[in-house]
Amino acid sequence: VLGVNLNNVKPEVQVPADLKSQQFSNEDDFPSPKLRFGKSISRGQLLGYRPGSEVTISSSNTSWFVGRGIPPAVPVKEDGSFEIECYTVAPLNTTLYISGISSPIDVFSLPGSEVEIIIDLPTCFMAHSRIRGKDYKGVPYVWFRGDYARLNTEILNNKVLNGIIEGEFFSDICGMTPLQYKKYCWKVLEKKRSEVEKNKGLGTMTRRI
């Protein structure tokens, strides 16, 4: 089922050695905030992908030039590789959706940048399964190379950076006035900012974002 055997054994895939012990140098800060038209390229590789399987990839992004309808499907080649190109004039957030997986993958890029995403499919599905999920908690299955690899990795691995909608958010804001909602959001953001400042291992760009 979706590349996972029913005998409780996870198919083994060859994860590149450099990803297993990936180390990042401190990335430069963001470029000057001016509009610059260019193409953002996100190249991906699905490790353990089987041609003819029902695994599909779709994506959406924040580009001004692309509509926000149903996320379009991304063609996947027989070797499990795929590529997403988008013209943009500002920082771009591309969201990848894998069929059968509830948690999407966000990819940050800028005009002219190239990002590589490597996904271990069997581990990904195991980590999101109801039966084996707890056994794979914290096991990495997504890696980044290329531009902004450190930033994308830290965003992926630090939930504090994933916006304010989490936990009891919707029950907390029920019945609030607009002013109360504004104060609540600022309180949550200040709490998250404090958590980011305490994490000395985060890079410069991650702290700024």
Notes on the structure:
The termini are far apart. With 209 residues, this protein is α+β, with helices and mostly antiparallel strands. Helices cover 24% and strands 23% of the residues. A hairpin with a 6-residue loop joins strand 5 (92-98) and strand 6 (105-109). The mean pLDDT is 81.
Structure in a nutshell:
The chain is globular.
Features:
alpha+beta; 4-stranded mixed β-sheet; 4-stranded antiparallel β-sheet; 6 helices
What are the SSEs and their pairings?
Blueprint: H1 17-20, E1 38-47, E2 57-61, E3 73-74, E4 81-88, E5 92-98, E6 105-109, E7 114-120, H2 121-127, E8 142-146, H3 149-157, H4 169-173, H5 178-198, H6 204-208
Parallel strand pairs: 1-7
Antiparallel strand pairs: 1-4, 2-3, 2-5, 5-6, 7-8
Distance between the termini: 38 Å
Could you say which structural class the secondary elements and strand pairing correspond to?
Answer: alpha+beta
Main pleated-sheet profile = 4 strands, mixed
Helicity level, as a percent range?
10-25%
Strand order of the largest sheet: 4-1-7-8
Approximate strand percentage: 15-25%
Could you give the count of β-strands? 8
| Low-confidence regions | none
* Backbone shape: globular
List the total number of helices. Answer: 6
What would you report as the Rg, rounded to the nearest angstrom? 19 Å
| Average pLDDT reading | 81
Name the helix and strand elements from N-terminus to C-terminus, one letter apiece: HEEEEEEEHEHHHH
